[in-house]
Amino acid sequence: MSNSRTRMKREANAENEVHDVAEFTDAARNVVTPVLQLPADIALAVVNAFTKVVRDAKRSESATTRNKDGITRFQTFEEGDVYMLEAPFDDFFADRYLMDFYNVEERGVCSRMHMHTGLRFVRMMTGPDTRIRVSSLSPFEITGVTGVTPFSLRSFEDALPDTPPGVERTRYNLVVPPCSFVDMQIPRGVSHQFNAVGEHAVIDSVHPEESVETFREKMSGFKMMAQTVFLADELPASDTCANLPT
Q1: For residues 78 and 180, is the Cβ–Cβ distance under 8 A?
Q2: Distance of alpha carbon 49 from the chain centroid
Q3: Mind giving me the DSSP string for 151-218?
Q4: From CA 87, how far away is CA 157, in angstroms rounded?
Q5: End-to-end C-alpha distance for the chain, whole angstroms
Q6: Residue ranges of the alpha helices (H) in 101-160?
Q7: What is the pLDDT of residue 1?
Q8: DSSP 11-60
Q9: Lesser CB count within 10 Å: N end or C end of the chain?
């Protein structure tokens, strides 16, 4: 998996491909950077402005149908609704997405642990009374610069839920607190899982090699679910991600 030319998927366009969690090893580690915290009213305004873009796209005929380049900009993912804000083109192979998170307390299920066929850069943003639980099968590297980094992140470990009989995997977790911006660099082939607890959470993500990964995996187009490999068959119950330690 460390060879960037190696295909990661068995079936390029499969939208629910599951790999064996017992045999899986992360190719690297996720790197997390606390960025800033905002007053509650400002944080709410920022998050709501981003989520409105996604919700408008959900109601847009042009965003929900394939364009001339074969791209459907509005998509759905396990963690939330997704809108491709900026699409790749021949001279620029990156693109950018906004994700409007589902609230796991309302939905009743959590997202599954998964990895992507290309690297990702994500900025997680929360509003009032909302936290994001970020998880991985490898410890996070949390960065900090004295005098610059404004806050620290709480981390903890638990057992990955719903593993096959006889399989135990440690899940590493951190919590994005309310009214905070936190960045995460996700290398290709590294496990991760996002679950929002609360109403106000959004991700602004850049996929710096989406055209490359689509070509490398022999995919027929740009689709978040097809660019994902899951590490569980079913979505776990909400209490496996919503109950955060105090």
Answers
A1: no
A2: 19
A3: ---EEEEEEPTTPPTT---EEEEEEEPTTEEEEEEE-TT--BEEEEESS-EEEEEEETTHHHHHHHTT
A4: 37
A5: 37
A6: 104-107
A7: 39
A8: STT-SS-B--TTT---SS--EEEEEEE--HHHHHHHHHHHHHHHHHHHT-
A9: C
Q: Which residues contact 225 (CB under 8 A, 6 or more apart)?
A: 15, 16, 75, 77
Residue at 64: amino acid letter: T
pTM, whole model, 2 decimals? 0.94
R_g over Cα of the chain: 17
Q: Supply 241's token pair.
A: 């991600």
Structure tokens that stand for 230 in this block: 């899951």
Q: Of how many residues is the chain composed?
A: 246
Over residues 83-139, the pLDDT tens digits come to 999 999 889 999 999 999 999 999 999 999 999 999 999 999 999 999 999 999 999
